[in-house]
Write a structure and sequence with these properties.
Radius of gyration: 16 Å
Low-confidence stretches: none
Strand order of the largest sheet: 3-2-4-1-6-7-5
């Protein structure tokens, strides 16, 4: 089956380069405009699987307004713990932040756990779509979750986590296999440049 993976539109926190993981923030006005402009470029899908977070629900409404959807808890963004709502400039002198960046300590949800949760969500999407006979589905989620998911399941494999970075309202088009769980990228969708 074909699965379209898309990151939500831009939020004020994204514009300010803040860790907005579990903060349930809306799209910025620019994010709404971005989604409206991107909508005509998106492939047709029969069903959507969406993070329950507001920015993803709003993006799904604008990209695919009349497509039925299922909300998937495992598609939520990474939990950045005590760094939520802050940005690098505010944290750069914080010893805990420096230790976190160096991989010496865990804050919030470890990246590996988020990646495994993303893979679990992708498996759910594939199984649910197969059970319903969907051949073309969309997923609206978050940058960090999608990068983690694709680090584990994306093919062809890439060097690292950030090699899978999707722009806001951008992402990937690919074929999903369930056994083994692999997402074979066939192209990009939506916005591909900042």
């Amino acid at each position: 089956m074909e699965v379209i993976l898309v990151r939500h539109g831009i939020t004020q926190g994204n514009k300010e380069k803040r860790f907005v993981g579990r903060l349930d923030v809306p799209l910025a006005p620019e994010g709404e405009a971005m989604a409206r402009e991107t909508a005509p470029l998106m492939p047709k899908v029969e069903h959507l699987y969406v993070s329950p977070m507001l920015r993803c629900r709003q993006t799904a409404d604008l990209l695919w307004p009349d497509v039925p959807r299922t909300f998937v808890e495992d598609l939520r963004e990474t939990d950045f713990g005590i760094f939520e709502g802050k940005n690098h400039a505010e944290l750069q002198d914080d010893p805990a932040y420096q230790r976190w960046l160096a991989g010496e300590m865990v804050v919030g949800e470890p990246a590996e756990d988020c990646a495994r949760r993303g893979a679990r969500a992708l498996a759910f999407v594939g199984k649910d779509a197969a059970e319903h006979g969907y051949e073309h589905v969309g997923v609206v989620s978050h940058g960090g979750l999608l990068m983690g998911m694709l680090t584990l399941c994306g093919r062809p494999a890439r060097k690292g986590f950030y090699d899978w970075y999707p722009q806001n309202c951008g992402g990937y088009r690919g074929e999903l296999t369930l056994d083994p769980l692999e997402y074979h990228v066939t192209g990009t969708v939506g916005r591909t440049k900042a």
